[in-house]
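Morning run. Coffee first, then this:
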Amino acid sequence: MGETGTAGGRPGGRRGAARDKLLAAAARRFYADGVAATGIDTITAEANVAKMSLYNNFSSKADLVMAYLDARHAEWLSLYRRRLEEAEGGRGGVLAVFDAYADHAAFAYENGFRGCGLLNAAAELPAGHAGRAVVRRHKEEVEELLAGHLDELLPGRPGRARAMAEHLSFLLEGAVARAGLEGAGTRLEHARSMAADLLDRL
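And here it is:
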């Protein structure tokens, strides 16, 4: 969630900087304290911007929540693409997905790792909320990425690749949940080793 402009020079620069500060503050507070427990005043105070700045950049708290979910998804994709640059072949691509989650868990969170920020937020949103659809799309995209890499390992066997992608996504989600409860990424390291072992048996 880098800055989208310079503070001087253009009028839009200050607005872009304020938006970035608000998104960064919301990300910290939503992850540490939860979406429902975090009010607008808390976010603007942490971002060190006037309350009006929030409404100049977001139509409501709900709009800010959606922006947070989109930013969290983009952040994970960036970590995955960085890992993918170092990966070799389908096996490396699958493990790059696991490594990207481990990278996320290794961030210096205020209260330690609390699991998947997207799922944590979705758990607070009511059924039918647009934010839940964003989180679902993220999880579906991760499974699609796994399936694409597995297609390389299992040419001509798309059904097997899809089934293995679902299996690995369940392994990954379970590891994230346990890691969140334990406040460390150790379970993700174990899950990566399990995934590597499964891939070696294909």
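The chain is about 75% helix and 0% strand. Good start to the day.
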